[in-house]
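User: Please fill in residues for this 354-position structure.
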């Protein structure tokens, strides 16, 4: 199903939950609606589903305006955050529910449910009640029930929020594989950026009811269009006056500019670890945080504190230790524009590890 949304607005009294949101989604894509809690993601999802009526704007499915169509006529499957399974029904009965509403024959229902049970890995659990299942299994039942009527669009509202971390990771991979195999257009809401980056073909960043940016996970990470997107996706440090750092003096020509520096754009090393280039400057270790596979390092350069990472394979640094620091690039922002600034001194030979 191809989707076109134009100038979508939703107000609840004086509160403007969704503001002039426009986007298009190609058939078969898996889209992540990502943003902080209360940003408008679920309101957008519910308007697509027909569970909320837009204050203004148009929702078009495959060339047809659906604003006034009830949910059951939109060709949508919906997976709720809390599963919303019928407690008194077995797995088989839960999956079959939508098919019975459509008054399909017993044979058709049995065939469809059997197919979905196999597809979702629930074989052998058909006669169990929801309370006899794990959280991951209940989520698979909810997914199968949403797919049973063969919807053209699948909507998922924070589908992994109620599941523990290990199972959540497994379900992410499973969901992506299932949707790719089925080729069904899907939209899921999440506030977990790792989840969106791992699962989605495209991400839409929603903040304060507005669409900040839409694109592939890589494009959004590599080329954020707003300060909010740059600070929300990935880890970073906001620097008020980057012109104090070597190679970024030209930033002073832009009044009010701020910089955002990602950890991977910072290179650090002990004084003996790499040769001094003109872009390298002295720093001091402020704090170290063990992250299992690496160290997160807080380092000060003058009065600026930066965050970066260091491999466990390298010599351990100590708080207070003097080191060399090289900042390769940064995102610069004013109220009106954003751009990437490369360290102008990087034309000199790059640091060579010895």
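Assistant: Residues filled in for all 354 positions:
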């Amino acid at each position: 199903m191809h989707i076109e949304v134009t100038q979508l607005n939703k107000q609840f009294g004086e509160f403007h939950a969704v503001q002039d949101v426009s986007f298009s989604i190609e058939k078969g894509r898996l889209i992540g609606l990502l943003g902080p809690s209360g940003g408008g993601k679920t309101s957008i999802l519910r308007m697509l589903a027909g569970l909320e009526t837009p204050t203004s704007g148009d929702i078009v499915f495959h060339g047809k305006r659906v604003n006034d169509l009830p949910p059951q006529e939109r060709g949508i499957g919906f997976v709720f955050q809390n599963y919303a399974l019928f407690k008194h029904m077995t797995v088989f009965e839960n999956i079959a529910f939508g098919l019975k509403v459509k008054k399909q024959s017993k044979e058709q229902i049995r065939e469809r449910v059997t197919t979905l049970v196999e597809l979702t890995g629930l074989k052998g659990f058909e006669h169990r009640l929801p309370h006899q299942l794990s959280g991951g299994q209940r989520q698979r039942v909810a997914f199968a029930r949403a797919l049973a009527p063969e919807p053209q669009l699948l909507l998922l509202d924070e589908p992994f929020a109620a599941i523990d971390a290990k199972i959540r990771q497994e379900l992410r991979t499973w969901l992506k594989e299932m949707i790719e195999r089925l080729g069904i257009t899907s939209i899921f809401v999440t506030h977990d950026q790792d989840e969106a980056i791992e699962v989605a073909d495209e991400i839409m960043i929603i903040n304060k009811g507005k669409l900040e940016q839409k694109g592939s996970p890589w494009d959004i990470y590599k080329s954020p269009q707003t300060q909010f997107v740059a600070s929300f996706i990935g880890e970073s440090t906001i620097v008020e006056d980057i012109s104090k750092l070597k190679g970024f003096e030209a930033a002073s020509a832009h009044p009010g500019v701020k910089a955002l520096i990602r950890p991977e754009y910072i290179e650090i090393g002990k004084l003996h670890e790499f040769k001094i280039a003109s872009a390298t400057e002295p720093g001091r270790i402020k704090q170290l945080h063990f992250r299992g596979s690496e160290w997160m390092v807080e380092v000060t350069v003058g009065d600026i504190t930066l965050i970066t990472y260091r491999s466990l394979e390298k010599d351990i640094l100590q708080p207070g230790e003097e080191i060399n620091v090289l900042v390769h690039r940064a995102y610069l922002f004013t109220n009106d524009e954003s751009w990437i600034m490369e360290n102008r001194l990087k034309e000199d030979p790059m640091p060579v590890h010895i």
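For context: Residues 165-182 form the longest helix (18 residues).
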